[in-house]
């Protein structure tokens, strides 16, 4: 599902040299710096903080809070998929060049809640695939 982000890393992802997908955040990059680079490049970026998240309900609650989901988010897997494939709620400031989600502490979440992480990973992959066919791509970095 995930691979290492190939050279030229985050800048290449943001300028189109690297195909959008789900990648591991390089050790030389911080989540904050990746999000800042995305903003500088005209992408809409968000950081999903998964430290201490150990189940589906907590994961979905954190997604709602950190990603600023709309009020119609139903706190279930289908609603997560809907929010990530209909990003109209994320276009508050106009049309971005792309969408970047940085999922921090992913490995800790995956170890604490492997089934939930597996489902979330599938939903992430489906969202990235959905946006691959659009003018505004989505990429996810697992940190």
TrEMBL record:
Pfam families: Barstar. Transmembrane segments: none annotated. Residues 44-142 form the Barstar (barnase inhibitor) domain. Belongs to the barstar family. This is Barstar (barnase inhibitor) domain-containing protein. It comes from Streptomyces caatingaensis. The lineage of its organism: Bacteria, Bacillati, Actinomycetota, Actinomycetes, Kitasatosporales.
């Amino acid at each position: 599902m995930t691979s290492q982000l190939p050279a030229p890393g985050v800048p290449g992802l943001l300028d189109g040299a690297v195909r959008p997908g789900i990648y591991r955040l390089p050790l030389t990059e911080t989540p904050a710096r990746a999000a800042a680079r995305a903003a500088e490049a005209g992408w809409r970026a968000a950081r999903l903080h998964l430290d201490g998240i150990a189940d589906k309900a907590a994961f979905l609650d954190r997604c709602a809070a950190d990603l600023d989901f709309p009020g119609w988010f139903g706190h279930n897997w289908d609603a997560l998929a809907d929010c990530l494939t209909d990003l109209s709620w994320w276009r508050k400031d106009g049309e971005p060049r792309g969408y970047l989600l940085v999922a921090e502490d992913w490995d800790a979440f995956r170890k604490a809640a492997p089934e939930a992480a597996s489902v979330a990973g599938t939903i992430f992959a489906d969202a990235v695939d959905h946006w691959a066919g659009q003018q505004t791509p989505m990429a996810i970095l697992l940190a």
